[in-house]
Amino acid sequence: QSLTFSSTRSFNAGIDFTGTGALNFTAGTQTFNTPLTFAASDPVVTLNGAFWTAPQNLSFTTGWNAQTGTISGAGLLSTSSTTSVSNGVTISGKTWDNTGTINITGTSGRITLASTSTLNNNAGGVINYNGTNTFPITISSGTNTINNAGTLNVNGGVSATIDTVLNNTGTLNVVSGPLTINQGGTDTGVY
Fold this sequence. Notes:
Blueprint: E1 2-5, E2 9-11, E3 22-25, E4 29-32, E5 36-38, E6 44-53, E7 58-60, E8 64-72, E9 77-79, E10 82-85, E11 88-92, E12 95-98, E13 101-104, E14 110-114, E15 118-121, E16 126-129, E17 137-139, E18 145-148, E19 151-154, E20 160-162, E21 165-168, E22 171-174, E23 179-181
């Protein structure tokens, strides 16, 4: 079972996605005008080429595939399960709170923070960089920040650069490959 959205849609109060299967967003702009939580009993969501505007909170308590696309809007993006980033996903003008696991993989796996965005890898959260993209977390415009209170693992085996402000109160492990932190920040955590 699968449902694919490839056009402009507005999701308003009362919207719900239920059942198993796949929920794909492949093109167009989808606007989330009401808070929405994707839970374990809901379809697996894949963002693959669409533009999401989320002025309300958008939560994933189940797995989420962020292949390619853009997410913007003032609402909080929160993830507490596994997020797979296998291509370039852009977070624009948004705060992303992670208490789950974010896996950045492949030759194009990348998170771009744009227009003053913040990625909070909270206590208990894990970011695994297992890909070969030399800029796994980068910026596009504005002052963008990663606040790492969890664990950030660099396993890519290539020379990688984190090209955004990084405040580390958690743990950053460079397991394989050199890592360059290319912006400022504050540190009370472990390297």
